[in-house]
Amino acid sequence: MATKCFCAALLPILLCFMLCQPCYGTVSDIQCLKKLKASVDLDNKLEWTFNNNTEGSICVFNGVECWHPNENKVLALHLGSMGLKGKFPDGLENCSSMTSLDLSSNSLSGPIPADFSKRLPFITNLDLSYNSFSGQIPESLANCTYLNNINLQHNKLTGNIPGQLAALGRLAQFNVADNQLSGQIPSSLSKFPPSNFANQDLCGRPLSNDCTATSSSRTGVIVGSAVGGAVITFIIVAVILFILLRKMPAKKKGKDVEENKWAKSIKGAKGAKVSMFEKSVSKMKLNDLMKATGDFTKENIIGTGRSGTMYKATLPDGSFLAIKRLQDTQHLESQFTSEMSTLGSVKQRNLVPLLGYCIAKNERLLVYKYMPKGSLYDHLHPKNSEKKGLEWSLRLKIAIGTARGLAWLHHSCNPRILHRNISSKCILIDDDYEAKISDFGLARLMNPIDTHLSTFVNGEFGDLGYVAPEYTRTLVATPKGDVYSFGVVLLELITGEEPTRVSNAPENFKGSLVDWITYLSNNSILPDAIDKSLIGKDSDAELLQCMKVACSCVLSSPKERPTMFEVYQLLRAVGEKYHFSAADDELTMQPQNADPEDELIVAN
Ligand SMILES: *[C@@H]1O[C@H](CO)[C@@H](O)[C@H](O)[C@H]1NC(C)=O
Ligand SMILES: *[C@@H]1O[C@H](CO)[C@@H](O)[C@H](O)[C@H]1NC(C)=O
Ligand SMILES: *[C@@H]1O[C@H](CO)[C@@H](O)[C@H](O)[C@H]1NC(C)=O
């Protein structure tokens, strides 16, 4: 009961509805596809047959992508050029976890439903281009707050572009070219290229015609231009051709410039100062960060992830820093500053220290200590296959260090911090092969209304192999979700495999690393999964013990997983003989605080 109230107080009504309702995902998703087929697949081009009710049966359908190959839960529909006919398809409201819909290049017509946002509230990618949809762009599209991409190109849409779309803070692509839209383009959309708005009667930025011209004077312009039209067109075409031809070789350079245009734009920004948490670190200005990263050039990028892009900065004294440019934070400056001072005080030996931050116009830059050895991912899956993988004792040291850092965040840190995006890419390694967790505390900065779904937005499915299965149902981050992701990292350390692609499995095996381990475990051949380079070196027993811990972390029921504190204790016992954890006293964990799994944690 208390849980429900907490939920009602802090989450939007829609989310609460989803959380507090039991989940009938799979029946519903089959019904979704049945209704869709019945409404638009009149010529049976999709060849979907519903005579098999096993979990995962719809996941092999043409154009259907599931969250998980063994679960009838639709992630995306890729139905471009499938010969679909009729009105906007029925049934999509029953694909309740769908995030991407592509119906492009079909023969669909009629209006886009006005209650679109009720049907697909979590959509991130919508492509209805090259159909014959008519009527207005529904205002309710603005309620689909996760939308990244909207493509409505080449339809028969009329009316204005709704100003409400300004509410779509994540919009990265927007195209309505080749429709019959009219009126002023909302200023929030003026950042997109003019060609995306090519419609007879649209006006305002980014187009070059402004909207102040009255319709009568426009008529005059039209008459006038009819006379001089041919001549002017000829001249314009000639000029454009001339410019294009001259620009051709310079094009590539132009693109590079584009990439750090944001950096140029904040150069010399007024009032931009770099705030450092430690007095020992020398004072810096935005200008120094610019110099140290060569104005944030591409060459200095050392990593990109969900929360932003990391750059390597070289200071005049030859030392290094890592600077993160945060991806669209939605916090006010004051909120951001207070979050920063909290994060700046979070210090533990298995966390990458946050040294400072800088606010410059809309940009938010975080200054971290630089970790020269890079990420665990790079060490486990070297691009150059000649390079030898890590030996077992180092892997175990990294596993224990990561577990210690996470256990500290969950159980000792106040306020408690959930990481939510643990992967081998965010675990960095220092000179002594001590694990350092990066990106902690950033999930909350990204999106104030923090649903887990926001993790998947921006098309970044790269970390999918690490995501706990319950997240697709509950949308709420929990400590047990972090435990699951850590379990996947542990499996990576033991098997040397990537979480989404198992090179050691038979060719027709399509599942993730966790699926592979589950399969081997069910067939009592778990030891087959262990990295061949580690076997027979006096550590087989440790490998199996760690495998057992990893398997308990990735159990599908969150309640059955151990807490991070327990995981740390188990791994520490396995590694006792190596004496990694001599300086361990800083850990004052409170095990009584260690079973928060029934509590919904909205803020981290
Ligand atoms: C499909 O969605 C409709 C409308 O939201 C709902 O009434 C119906 O129960 C759903 N069907 C299933 C099987 O969940
Ligand atoms: C049903 O689908 C499952 C999963 O795709 C498949 O393994 C099984 O063989 C199918 N059964 C029948 C009777 O087609
Ligand atoms: C969109 O959301 C707003 C605010 O929650 C609500 O008033 C409005 O009715 C919604 N529109 C539609 C079409 O769902």
Automatic annotation (TrEMBL):
The chain crosses the membrane at residues 221-245. SUPFAM superfamilies: L domain-like (SSF52058), Protein kinase-like (PK-like) (SSF56112). The keyword NAD does not apply. Its main location: membrane. Keywords: Kinase, Leucine-rich repeat, Membrane, Receptor, Repeat, Signal, Transferase, Transmembrane, Transmembrane helix. CDD domains: STKc_IRAK. GO terms for molecular function: ATP binding; protein kinase activity. Residues 1-25 form the signal peptide. Pfam families: LRR_1, PK_Tyr_Ser-Thr. Residues 296-571 form the Protein kinase domain. It is found in: Membrane. PANTHER family: LEUCINE-RICH REPEAT-CONTAINING PROTEIN DDB_G0281931-RELATED, LRR RECEPTOR-LIKE KINASE FAMILY PROTEIN. This is Putative inactive leucine-rich repeat receptor-like protein kinase. The lineage of its organism: Eukaryota, Viridiplantae, Streptophyta, Embryophyta, Tracheophyta.
